[in-house]
Amino acid sequence: MADYQEEDLQKFLKDVDEITNLIQGMNSADPIVQEKAVLNTEKRLLLTEEDQEEDGCRTTLASDVLTIQEQSLALMLQLTQSENGRSLVVSHLDLTRLLEALVSFLKFSDKKANSAMGLLIDLALEERFQVWFQANLPSVLPALTGVLKRDPRVTNTSALSQCIALMGNLSAEASTRGQMSASEEFGNACLSLMTRCEEDVDLFREVIYALLGFMMNLCLQSPFVSEVWAMEVSRRCMSLLNSQDGGILTRAAGVLSRTLSSSLKIVEEALRAGIVKKMIKFLKTGGQTASRYAVKTLAICTNSYHEAREEVTRLDKKFSVLKELLSSEDEILVGNAALCLGNCMEVPQAASSLLKTDIVQVLLKLAGGDAQKTAVQLNAGIALGKLCTAEPRFAAQLRELHGIEILNSTMKYLNDS
């Protein structure tokens, strides 16, 4: 082992001056010097690629010698500061081994871990890296699963959260999150990390925040890892709704807005845990993003359970919160608010509480409007129909406003489009 390490060290030291000179040349203000350095760096990386093929898994970043690891990382960071450098690294290095080596730095508690993650994030900006990642995800998924299995108590939480945030960014691609969701081990590792971090939300705030963002993307994938997985994720997020951290609250609500629609059992459990009251509070005090998630959650709950409709009717007096959302410029908010309001019209006396308001005019304007999303027109039309059915006095108002003709015209347009 000693001879092996000495050989690595000698080889590394021999390369340091050459690589440093190349980096300096690439950063030169002289375009001729810079171009020459780029060409020489490309040749150097081609040699490195050949060395990798000969040496198997040996890379200086993965060396057993700590000094070599540190200096290799420092040099790589310098090299990737320029667009040319990043492009050359992505083109000529074995990216699977490079990714594995970089995530292995998470075992360090100092700045080396942050530097390694910063390097990985820089490389991930390259389009060729993203294309490679999608095509080779099965080969690197074990390394990423290993990241999620790390104990946050003995890991640099800043570096860990950066790595998870990067996974979240990459999972924005449908094919990527599809492969991730298909791995039960990967999904369970996400859940396990969330559970461990909940033991001290304040200490692991960065990790939880990044993980929730990542899981929001994973939950766009259908079907989920499993119904059991979705149920457990929902439980964890319901628990996080007790947090005082606005960012965590918003993202936990975001995950819930995507898991609830997968199973009536999950909705039932969430209702028992008081989700309606929490979402109404979100709508009263939260920002636009939180409100989006909250009203979508209420729409899902009221769509399936009369109990939820009754609770919304009781907590939102005269539907003042939902009515306010109907005037928003955010069409997703408006569409879900109209859906929720329409669902609540099935509660006895609920429609009567809206007498002496302009609810008919508001819904009619939305139903006959030119919203980009047809869900706004459709849900507003349905809500108006339920309102008039529940309270005949609204039907009289609708006729006075020529609402029947407007609704018929809207429905014809929606059917034809």
UniProtKB/TrEMBL annotation:
This is Tetratricopeptide repeat domain 12. Gene3D superfamilies: Leucine-rich Repeat Variant (1.25.10.10). InterPro entries: ARM-like, ARM-type_fold, TTC12. SUPFAM superfamilies: ARM repeat. GO terms for cellular component: centrosome; cytoplasm. One of its GO terms (biological process) is sperm axoneme assembly. It comes from the Eukaryota. PANTHER family: TETRATRICOPEPTIDE REPEAT PROTEIN 12.
